[in-house]
Amino acid sequence: MTVRSHHDVEDAVGEVGLWLTGEFSGRLAASAVAAVVRVTRRDLEGRIAPEDLGEMLHRMSRTRLQRLLANEVRIPRRR
Questions:
Q1: Rounded CA gap, 8 and 23, in Å?
Q2: CB 24 within 8 A of CB 33
Q3: 1-37: burial string, b at 16+ Cβ within 10 Å, e else
Q4: pLDDT of residue 10
Q5: In angstroms, rounded to a whole number, what is the distance separating the alpha carbons of residues 20 and 69?
Q6: What DSSP assignment string belongs to 24-42?
Q7: 5 with 51: CB under 8 angstroms?
Q8: Which whole-number Å values give the CA distances from 21 to 13, 33, 34, 50, in the listed order?
Q9: Closest CA to 43 of 27, 31, 55, 56
């Protein structure tokens, strides 16, 4: 994915958000996925080449969402 303009960046963010919302459906709310994608985009801005934004945004957001799920506090069931 190549990102050349602000419009392309917004398209990449939307595409990544849609993809990850589907992947994490049933495990995380769409609003949580969107929040992670937005924060990740801010973290990446100015740090990587614009043409790498789409791929890196997807990879980093996915890793952060997986970490979020792995760190969920689970309440043990009573026996």
A1: 22
A2: yes
A3: eebeeeebbeebbeebbeebbeebeeebeeeebbebb
A4: 83
A5: 13
A6: TTTTS-HHHHHHHHHHHHH
A7: no
A8: 12, 6, 8, 23
A9: 56
Residue with tokens 């303009």: 5
If you search the block for the tokens 């969107």, which residue do you land on?
A: 34
Averaged pLDDT for residues 4-19: 80
Contacts (Cβ under 8 Å, ≥6 apart) of 19: 58
CA distance 8 to 78: 51
Q: What is the pLDDT of residues 22-77, one digit of tens each?
A: 999 999 999 999 999 999 999 999 998 888 999 999 999 999 999 999 987 555 56
